[in-house]
Amino acid sequence: MQVGKEKLLWMYEKMVQIRYYEETMASVYMEGKLPPAIQKGLAFDIGAGIVPGEMHLAAGQEPVAVGICAHLSDEDTVVGTHRPHHFAIAKGVPLNPMTAEIFGKVTGLGKGKGGHMHLFDNAHKFSCSGIVGASMPIACGAALAAKKLGKNWVSIAFFGEGAANQGAFHESLNLAALWKLPVIFVCEDNHWAISVPKSKSTSVEWVADRAAGYGIPGIKVLENDAILVFEAVAPAISRARHGEGPSLIEIKTDRYFGHFQGDPETYRPKDEVTGLRKNDPIAILAKMLRDKKFMTSDEESGVVLKMHQLVDKAFDFARKSDYPSANDALQDVFVNGQKNTRALV
Amino acid sequence: MKSFRILTVAQAISEGIAQEMTRDSNVFVMGEDIGAYGGIFGATGGLLDKFGKDRIIDTPISETAFIGAATGAAVAGFRPIVELMFVDFFGVCMDQIYNHLAKNTYMSGGHVKLPVVLTTAIGGGYNDAAQHSQCLYGIFAHVPGIKVVVPSNAYDAKGLMIQAIRDDNPVIFMYHKGIMGLPWMAYFEGSSNAVPEDSYVIPFGKANVVKEGSDLTIVSISQMIQKAVLAANELAGQSIHAEVLDLRTLVPMDTDAILKSVRKTGRLLIADEDYLGFGLSGEISALIAENLDTVSLKAPIKRLAVPNVPIPYSRPLEQFVIPQVANIVLAAQELMLKKIPLLADL
Fold first, then answer.
1. Could you report the per-residue pLDDT of A118-136, keeping only the tens digit for each?
2. pTM of the prediction?
3. Domain residue limits at A153
4. DSSP A259
5. Are residues B150 and B165 in contact, defined by beta-carbon separation less than 8 angstroms?
6. Strand, coil or helix: what is B157?
């Protein structure tokens, strides 16, 4: 399937937006986390600053998110991982409430209760989880619902290569294959499950080869390239929309930051990321767009400026938003304002 | 003369494991990121260099498989230590734990011996939200067949770890992230303390009176002990003398120590970072209720715990649901003002 100009430009815009979002987050995240503002003796305090807690950033992994989501509409479901920002942005989750959620503000998607690993947007059928492998069963459920409703909606389960060794992976593939569910399992192989390389954790070189065990197509994308992802996944999406069942896609991609911000990354060769950044998929796509005369240099600058402004506005919105009041912590355990019994404080 | 150094909890745990691995070749460690990384929370720091990859084994993210494998290897005479990064992650492999590791000894009429130590990180306070901040020791203590160890400081952590490895039964060893002494997370400095270089054990089921007092008893475990001590110091300035009791292990639980202290003070405050409902604080309250024929309370029991909500992400929300030093001080002050009226006065 050839990608049209419009889709190419959409993918480029989204990738620029994602990259700038993650880089902005990397910088904002460090506010208040370094000496001398923190406990004496610490090099870094993960719980301090304006955005506390763990932070998993997806710079470098943009092609996976945009190459897949370019095929989707609001009716299709995406379930992401603990590293979810690129998926959320590509799926169309609005930046303001998403960023406010990551700041823990009351204007956030979950009123500050979820945080960056737990973003829920019903309107765009997006959710994610901090638990490895948890996306797959839930995506199966969305696909089951679409099937029961007689709709041609698909659902996407994103997961890392480390999650392919979870029971949830094998159970979900079997269930989806058996029931011919319209779900696409998308493995982001960024080579590192925190500190453990794929070669030391996985019995086969390709996760996609495991598709054979469940009688479904296994598709390999060998390069971190949005167009290759888009083209490779097209038959899987079509298969799902036509009621023919699930597929497994494996995409080689690159993680530019650590597993989490503050990760000393002692396990990874020091210059690895420098090398990876030489093949930056955003620069590659930009060059292709210019070469094909789909975009002039001026238009490129315009896109970059526009995307940066959107992101800056979202961070500004998040900063200026209020925190929830402490008592709000007791609400929302159940829906419709039902009382959380025994909520003594 | 024995030599002492100030160690962090992470260093103390790893030293305890190393000494047992040197003593007993049947001890080995499996888990995620425990090798080159040294454990995300440092509990296996330096072990790969000392013992090599055959005994310090990085696993795939396949918890059902490697925790189940620990049970199988234990049957064959090994003494596996298995780490699962966060207690919140046990959901994916709970069957191997609560239906097998915890029960096979009993179902075999005591013939199957399972000397397995599960290690895991617990606790919040650094805004890691609902799937990375729970304590959940109550769940493991609820299931018969697993001993539950929850240290509050480095000295205890080393002695309890060595005891855990030598125990012939399954033990879950739960360390709070906020006492580990990591260079990237704030921690309570009271948790790093003097630790002997030599090997030693702390027996299970022996609570530690961290601070003596006569006005009320504060029972707790883990990081909350460090908060309780700070609260007790503040209360002492107001002439309220709190006794702080560190249970160290939930299974077995030192019920004698709790009863002894409450008989002395007549007032009980339980400070807990686990959920309020159906957990540690309820268990201890029941213990007192069942012994009211020999315990004379001057005030109703007070419980501080997470008020039956998942741990929220946002800082003001998280600070609100997890008991803090100020909450302990306030609860103690209130307890001193409360009375138990005579039935005739009601």
1. 999 999 999 999 999 999 9
2. 0.95
3. 5-316
4. S
5. no
6. helix
* ipTM here: 0.93
Largest distance between two CA atoms of chain A: 65
Contacts of A113 in chain B (CB under 8 A): 129-130, 310, 312-314, 317
3-state SS assignment for residue A211: helix
Specify whether the CB–CB gap between B318 and B288 falls below 8 A. no
Q: How far apart are CA B63 and CA B59, in angstroms?
A: 9
Q: What are the residue boundaries of the structural domains of chain B, listed by start?
A: 4-196, 208-341
Q: Give the model's pLDDT for residue A345.
A: 42
CA distance A55 to chain B (A): 9
The CATH number given to whatever domain includes residue A94 is: 3.40.50.970
Place of tokens 């480029």: A12
CB proximity list for A57: less than 8 A, separation 6 or greater: A22, A25, A26, A83, A85, A256, A257, A261
- Whether the CB-CB separation of A108 and A97 falls below 8 Å is answered with yes
CB contact, 8 Å: A104 with chain B? yes
**Residue from A11, A13, A30 nearest A258 by CA:** A30
Residue reference for tokens 């719980």: A47
Inter-residue contact A169 to B62 (CB < 8 Å): no
Asked whether B101 and B157 are in contact (CB, 8 A), the reply is: no
Q: Which of B200, B156, B199 is nearest to B174 (CA)?
A: B156
pLDDT tens profile B54-105: 999 999 999 999 999 999 999 999 999 999 999 999 999 999 999 999 999 9
> What are the φ/ψ torsions at residue A221 (nearest 5 degrees)?
-115, 115
Please state the CATH superfamily assignment of the domain spanning residues B4-196 in this structure.
Answer: Thiamin diphosphate (ThDP)-binding fold, Pyr/PP domains (3.40.50.970)
Angle (CA) A221-A223-A224 rounded to 5° is 105
Q: What type of residue is B128?
A: D
Q: Are B129 and A117 in contact (CB < 8 Å)?
A: yes
For residue A331, tell me if it sits in a domain.
no
